[in-house]
Amino acid sequence: MTTTAVIRVRGGRPLHGSVTPQGAKGTAVLLFAASLACATDVLLDRVPAISDTAVFAELATKLGAAVERGDDWLRISATIHRSTVDGQLGRALRVTPSLAAAVLARTGQVEFPFPGGDAFCARPIDRHLDAMRAAGATVDIVGGTVRARLAGGRVRPFKASAGTPYGPSVGATVTALVLAACASGTSLVTEASPEPEIDRTVAFLRAGGARVEPRFDGAYELTGGGIVHGSRQCVPVDRIEAGTLAIAALVTGGSVILRSCAAADLSAPVRDFLTTAGGRVRDVPDGVEIAAVATGMAVDLETGPRVGFPTDLQPVATAALSGLAGRSTVTERVYRSRDSHVPGLREFGADIRVDGPVVTVRGPRELMPAAVTGSDVRCVTSYLTAALTADGVSTVGGLAHLDRGHADLVGQLSALGADVVRTN
Length: 424
Description:
By secondary structure, the chain is α+β, with helices and mostly antiparallel strands. 32% of the residues lie in helices and 27% in strands. A hairpin with a 2-residue loop joins strand 10 and strand 11 (167-168). The longest helix is centred in the middle third of the chain and has 13 residues, at 239-251. It is elongated, with a radius of gyration of 21 Å. The model has no long low-confidence stretch (mean pLDDT 94).
């Protein structure tokens, strides 16, 4: 991907038609990590053709695994015989500590870089490392490299927390669950993330032979047999891409059907946002329909795990708030901050202010064309959403970030009638 690649958007066209959202990036990358813990083959269906998938396939191959890729599937034979995670590849992924946990469990040792991926705020890995230590590993950090080694070469049963000052960590929950599944005995993972992606990871580990029981206090009790077997799993619909397309339909005054998707896939907070902002959300025979049907009202959003508004949709939703009359607020409760999209939205003419974790938007305002570059995947989708409403031609850069999360969002928008062109 060249640094000069941009998406050119001529805004002001309502979106109409139907598209099928991709398989969920957030679930797929967690299953990639869990697959490396498996002693037998794993087959994943509906895998999105995003850059993270290609990076994982290369990284796993360098570890000794055999990886086959189809148009929308991935087969992993995790015959791991190397314990060093490639530095360049590992720094390209957020899920690297969880991948490393699987390698540690399989080989008794691992060396891996600090993870990369989106960098909209500091994202420490201390909970991942604490889980490795609890499982019996000594952990040393030299520069940007982590080295972990298990006493006796095997994971021992343990207790570890995935909680952070900002709530449960999805990645640390997976790291702990993967290690626990490889232990011979019962482990306890406390303050576990309640996100749907964790449900899928738990189902995967259960299919592999681990006994996983959720507790009333948000913990998981997991009994492993020392070996995790592979299975065939289908990645669910990407709720973030579905939400992005739904918001795009709303802000352009259009009507779209998301195929192979249900209203429930958008979650209650997302549906509430769409309806308050003037949309109609209803299940139809082919999927779920989102249509702009009324004048929207200002909203107050608060992100949070599971029952809160998804943090990964927060930047896209923020881009939509300029069209609503009154004062809207977005409070970020998952990360210490998430406002990398704010400067670019101001370039479009949004009246937007940041005060700690709270973003305030005043509307209605007609957005104007702008030339902006996103610094992370959700920042880029936020700018695309704004550009779709601006009357004129905008350009959006930062497409290497977009490719981490979306296989062909430009194609999806074009199929719905948007005037969007990607120049490479």
